[in-house]
Amino acid sequence: MKSLTPTDVEALLKTQGPDATVYLVGAAGCGMSGLGHLFLDLGCKVAGSDLVGNETVRRLRERGAEIRAGHSAEHLQETRPFLVVYSSAIQGDNPELVAAQNLQLPVARRGAVLAALLRRQRGICVAGMHGKTTTTALAAHALEQLQATPSFAIGAEVPQLAPHARFVNTPDEEGSGVRPYFVAEADESDGTLGDFHPEHAVLLNVDAEHLDHFANLEGVCEAFQRFGAQVSGRLIYCADDEHLTRLFVGNPNAVSFGFHPQAQYQVEMIEERVTHYASRWTRFNLWHSGSLLGEFTTALLGAQNVSNAAAVIALLHQLQFQPDAIARAIRLFRGAARRLQELYRDERCRVFDDYGHHPTEVRATLQALNALGPSRLLVAFQPHRFSRTQKLMAEFAGCFAEADHLWLAEIYPASEPPIPGIDSTALAGAIRQHGLEVECVPDLDQLCAGLRKAMTSGDLVLFLGAGDITEAAHAFANQLEQEAAARRQSLASELTRRLSPDSIVRRDEPLAKRTTLRVGGAADFYVEPASEADLGAVLHFCAEHELPFLMLGRGSNLLIQDRGVRGVVISLAHPQFCRVEVRGNELQCGAGAKLKAVAVEARRHGLSGLEFLEGIPGSVGGALRMNAGAMGGSTFEAVESVRFMDFAGCVHERSVEQMEVEYRSCPHFRNHIALSAVLKGRPEASEAIAAKMNACSQKRWKSQPAAPSAGCMFKNPASIPAGRLIEELGLKGTRVGGAMISDVHGNFIVNEGGATAEDILELIELVKHRARAACGIELETEVEIIGEIPPGRTGLPAPGTFETTCAVHAKP
Q1: Is the peptide bond before 163 cis (omega within 30 degrees of 0)?
Q2: How many Cα neighbours within 13 Å face the side chain of 300?
Q3: Of 166, 270, 422, 717, which residue is most buried, by most CB within 10 angstroms?
Q4: Domains of the chain: which residue ranges?
Q5: Cβ neighbours of residue 218 under 8 Å, at least 6 residues apart?
């Protein structure tokens, strides 16, 4: 069967009208479904077929594509497409390919068609045995963030780029001078690498892979060398790969990147950190020809992904984008599906799904996940292809060293016929020689059952492979989610029984409405105890069931993550904790009392010195915890004594002299719960006090934004107020989604409507990065950031950096 070349496809496309139909044989694969989206963007009609239906097929159908189940010659006779495209997984005796030949319809391989479309724009190809998808997705996302609006074709779903392929039409593609970039994976696995003639390319690595197509590693190197010769612009290659260095060092168009000291873009690690949110992020410097290009941050796990990020930075810098803008675009990326994708997380375990199917990939993936510090790393691996398993048996035998226990599924054939003696049992025997415990399982259901039985608290579970093991991974994560939901329901019922009828217990309670920023997800459990005895009972319940808990005041100075809060959120909003009683010159104030109510009650009784509280939208408990202040006053200047409860439920009382107090913090309340406080006032005429309160209010409304906010976002550095610093950096008015740095006061981030916690976190990181890069100032957040972070969340400070306002986040 004769297939069209990219030149043939390019010529054919020019002859077709806007309603011409292209037919995809094997439309469910990521590469083929991506082509479907590209043709739909071009105005073509798309038809096709596959043996399976999946999410990618559903998305194509939603856009009007006619994708049928099963392969049939009748489909071709009915649609009469101008072009039939097939994937490498389709065999030559496929009935639709046979029908296309009989009907004399033009036929082309997927790679040739993608190469033809790439020629219409400024092509950027990413090639290499490992990391293509992540690097391509990162490059496309970064160009999108840099407002370059690229076309792209990515070999996996990318949550931040949906769908995973897009063709950007321009008014005049030929001669207009405004052709967009087109970022695409160039696949070496099926011999189509030579079809691509891009303007620029990124080469990540060369390995002994796809040996069903290449005779040996040298054959792979020759294919990459030929491809490099077809790149007209910059060739960005990894200096850490000895094969690529041998092939391209000295090439006048080649630019190197990596950890190697001779790399033109050299990576220097600053820190890898696992935060108290159990997330990992990496900061690194990138040096360009001996000069510091800038500091960069990535949320992607592992040294390999730092190298991938460096590749994209080098490419973008060569395309004349500015380092600061590149840094922000890189930092925003969260990864592609099935590339260290976290499917589930709770206090007991985490579940990841990854596409890795080559020993090099397996080893790098296990190293990255072990850096998260699990108690054990449990790995389920599905080998991919008999030929790969046979030729790399020795490498597979030694690549699982960092796993604590391994389960092997049967080999996923990917249309290959079996090879006698090559199966998972043989691979398990080879792995056992390296001292690792291995179990072979005949089907994926038994695989999940074995994992669930073995799993204990603190484990990290990894599903690994390029076949259908991802379905088992998602089923396993769903099972854990269902178990967790049932457990939450049982716990909520038990907690309700333990408390008095006046206490409130709710499950999956939305928290955005309980914060002044109006963002954030739900709490597993929300409790308003009706008495100190009930509060103590809640603490005992949390200790008994190993549940984390959080004390929530009025929700100011607080940012709750979009994924909400795991465990129990306790609010002292019951009237029992909100009383304000005046005794002489003192006010006995419950921890749940609003600060404004305290200030008003003091004025009503002619007590001065508490006027500054009127402008703080919080509670007494929160004010004690953070030593809240405004208009020159601070909470502990007015405190006589405090009553509090320890996490064991015992009540204590201390005078103010016995309390350690800091700027915007009282460390004692990091592990104690404020119940009430005695505040002191000075006798003064109510009219004079009212005038002071009014002056404070007027000053506040003139200097602070009216839109929802959490208050001042950053602590003031010693050298300059944070608001002035942010203003001098030119950041006022900067937006991410529905969040904006206030144009009234630079130290406020406001919710303009529809903002997410993620939007606000990006603004926080932008400000911190600019302050560090421009002034060498490390800003610290004054607002407390709590809750479960999204998988891959980047740039979070280390434990102890956050100071809390009205919350406790601890396990008793």
Answers
A1: yes
A2: 29
A3: 166
A4: 6-111, 120-331, 341-480, 499-704+808-812, 705-807
A5: none
CATH of 705-807 among 3.90.78.10, 1.20.1250.20, 3.40.50.300, 1.10.1040.10? 3.90.78.10
CA pair distance 253, 249, nearest whole angstrom: 10
Tell me the C-alpha distance between 308 and 89, whole Å.
Answer: 28
Per the DSSP assignment, residues forming a β-bridge with 406 are 379, 438
- For residues 757 and 539, what is the distance between their CA atoms, to the nearest angstrom? 28
pLDDT confidence band for 192 (50 / 70 / 90) = confident
Local structure of 650: helix, strand or coil: coil
Q: If residue 265 lies in a helix (H) or strand (E), which one and from where to where? A: strand 265-274
**Short-list 312, 282, 314, CA closest to 296:** 282
Of 793 and 41, the structure prediction assigns the larger pLDDT to 41
CATH code for the domain defined by 499-704+808-812:
3.30.465.10
Confidence of residue 464 (pLDDT cuts 50, 70, 90): very high
- List the beta bridge partners of residue 165: 153
pLDDT surpassing 70 at residue 139: yes
* CATH superfamily for domain 120-331: Mur-like, catalytic domain (3.40.1190.10)
- State the helix-helix crossing angle for 55-62 and 30-41, rounded to 10 degrees: 10
In 128-234 the beta strands, taken as DSSP E runs, fall at 151-153, 165-166, 181-185, 200-203
What is the predicted pLDDT for the residue at 631?
65
The span from the CA of 568 to the CA of 584, in Å, is 38
Q: Which two tokens stand for residue 421?
A: 């003696």
pLDDT of residue 18: 76
Spatial distance between the Cα atoms of 550 and 565, rounded to a whole number of angstroms: 8
Q: What is the mean pLDDT of residues 305-314?
A: 96
| Alpha-carbon span 470 to 198, nearest angstrom | 33
* Average pLDDT value for residue range 69-73: 90
Residues recorded for the chain = 812
pLDDT tens digits, one per residue of 686-744: 899 888 888 877 776 677 888 999 989 999 999 999 999 999 999 999 998 899 999 99
Secondary-structure class of domain 6-111 per CATH: alpha beta
User: How many other C-beta atoms can be found within 10 angstroms of the C-beta atom of residue 82?
Assistant: 18
Angle (CA) 460 462 464, round 5°: 170
Cα separation, 226 vs 235, in Å, equals 12
Nearest to 379 by CA among 353, 346, 345, 347: 353
Q: Is the pLDDT of residue 108 over 70?
A: yes
Tell me what the pLDDT averaged over the chain comes to. 88
**Which contacts qualify for 358-361: CB closer than 8 Å, 24 or more apart?**
358/129, 358/130, 358/207, 358/209, 358/388, 358/392, 359/392, 359/395, 359/396, 359/398, 359/399, 360/129, 360/130, 360/205, 360/207, 360/395, 360/399, 361/130
Q: How far is CA 535 from CA 294, 498, 509, in A?
A: 50, 11, 18
pLDDT at 278 over 80: no
Domain range 341-480, CATH class: alpha beta
Which residues face 351 on adjacent strands?
344, 461
**How far out from the chain centre does Cα 253 lie?**
34
Q: What is d(CA 566, CA 347) in angstroms, rounded to the nearest whole number?
A: 8
Report how far Cα 514 is from the mean position of its chain's Cα atoms. Answer: 25
Q: For position 632, what pLDDT does the model report?
A: 67
Task: Give the mean pLDDT of 621-643.
Answer: 85
- Give 62-67 contacts, CB < 8 A, sequence gap 24+: 63/37, 64/40, 65/27, 65/36, 65/40, 67/24, 67/27, 67/28, 67/36
Which amino acid, one-letter code, is at 187?
D
Overall average pLDDT of the 202-207 stretch: 91
pLDDT surpasses 70 at 803: no
| Beta-strand pair 639-646/349-354 | unpaired
pLDDT tens-digit map of 150-162: 999 998 889 899 8
